[in-house]
Amino acid sequence: MNAQFPAPADAAETPQRPVVLIGPMAAGKSFLALHMSKFYGYDFVDADQVIVSRYGVISKIFAEHGEKYFRDLEADTVAEILRDPDHANAIFSVGGGAPTTPSTRELLRHELVAYLEVDTETVLPRISGNRTRPMLQPDPERRWQELYESRRACYEELADITLDGRGNRPVAEIGADLEAELTRLRSARSAGGTTDITQEAQA
């Protein structure tokens, strides 16, 4: 990986790349990204929200066009946001299945990626009876477990930072953990000059 690490919004140096948040459905990625925007000065970008604003409700896209059509829209949206300098200082939340698309996964190998890890016990109250997430139908709990198990290795492989979101930890604690990691990496970059941030993150 060769990601350029983003500085905070008030830093003198112009930031060059967003921080990408990955993790399973209902992990709280968008909530965390919004928290980081509000309390730490990052921009907030959510891939699903961009898709909805442009193409309509995701469940309807699935119903009318199928998963492949949606994944293609999603991959194009992620690539566009990663290229856009207006989002260089963003915490960028992507959908749970986004990293499983080969083109998206390849892009994320070159970005700074934070993985929000959760478990079934944490997510279950958030998904019980859910009818708005097409990938969780018709049995949200069983489908969530199946999807998580099939995607977990991908999340772990891409992660430069792993955040513990299990046990309903307050978002303020998770956000503080993320900011601490980002601050540490900024310090490493400043001290090391051309240090590859993603290699440092994995050390």
Mean pLDDT, to the nearest integer, reads 88
Gap from first CA to last CA: 13 Å
Assign an overall shape.
Answer: globular
Query: What is the radius of gyration?
Result: 17 Å
Largest sheet, strands/sense/barrel: 5 strands, parallel
As for the CATH topology, it is Rossmann fold
Strand order of the largest sheet: 2-3-1-4-5
CATH architectural designation: 3-Layer(aba) Sandwich
Low-confidence parts = 8-15
- CATH superfamily (homologous) name: P-loop containing nucleotide triphosphate hydrolases
Estimate what percentage of residues fall within beta strands: 5-15%
Number of strands: 5
Helix and strand arrangement:
Elements: E1 19-22, H1 29-40, E2 43-46, H2 47-55, H3 58-65, H4 67-83, E3 90-93, H5 102-108, E4 112-117, H6 120-127, H7 140-158, E5 161-164, H8 171-192, H9 197-202
What would you note in describing this structure?
The structure is a single chain. By secondary structure, the protein is an alpha/beta fold. The chain is built from 9 helices and 5 strands. It starts with 18 loop residues before the first strand and ends with a helix. About 4% of the residues have low confidence.
